[in-house]
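User: I'll paste a sequence; please echo it back and then give the predicted structure.

Assistant: Echoing your sequence first, then the prediction.
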Amino acid sequence: MRVMVILNPCADLGRGVQQKKLIETEGEKWNGLDLIMTDRPGQAGELAYLAAEEGYEVVVAAGGDGTVHEVVNGLMQAKSFGAKLGVIPVGTGNDFAHGLDISKDIPLAVERIFQGQYRSIDLAAVMDDRGIGRLFTNNLGIGFDANVVIRVKAITRLHGFPRYFWGVLKTLALDFRPFQCDMRFDDETLSEDVLFVAFGLGPRHGGGFMLTPNARQDDNLIDTCTARPMKRLMALLLLNSAVHGTHIHKSQVTMRQNRQIEISSKTSLPVHIDGEVFAYPHDDVHRLTISSVPAAIEVLV
């Protein structure tokens, strides 16, 4: 079996590069693997595309959720699509891996690439009013959720969940504003002010927030958590309960499961996809369509 590992050396604030030797050493126990490191944003997708075209049977994303996102989009664009996805979680959040119970222990993660079972999982497609479309593997966020991701990008002295939580506190202080949305969830339509809308194929967001705790990767459904306007203290308490997934019982929150969602707003929408910024407020995005793509790819788990 030909295996290509695409390692993001900048994952986990530059700690990803420290895992190169261990990954290669563990791979030698299973007759070896090929490894290539990225040197710029977006390159993981290009390398995944080329690996699939060259006939690799498994293409592995070694990094965080952003690396998995890029690799999956590259694989799905390959004309000779058929390569399976592997994951070695060495990122900050690793929410996608958490949802599929993929270990952060590198020897075990490498072993699963060679000895694990294939599982078909759903993806979701997003298209905006600029005509830009992407697939996402785990989550998407609009509003406060996306502003947290934007703030987190500037935090370099923390990593893991504390980095995301500090981003939450900064966003509460500086970017805490609801916006009006017209929304369609399959056949349900409504218009209301919201603080954020979080979309999940998997349960965990931001390295530790179970915003969509009932989400599954193989049910052809996109789980959403819509939070209505509230005071800052209430928002902080709600997010604290989201660590355990108990926020779903709060009156300020509505949980849904749907196959297609449309969001539009007169306000420019900040958007993140899989923990990476998809649209900044100045990008002037006002409309999104999000659709389930069932059983889209096979991953080794």
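The mean pLDDT is 95. The CA atoms of residues 264 and 287 lie 4 Å apart.
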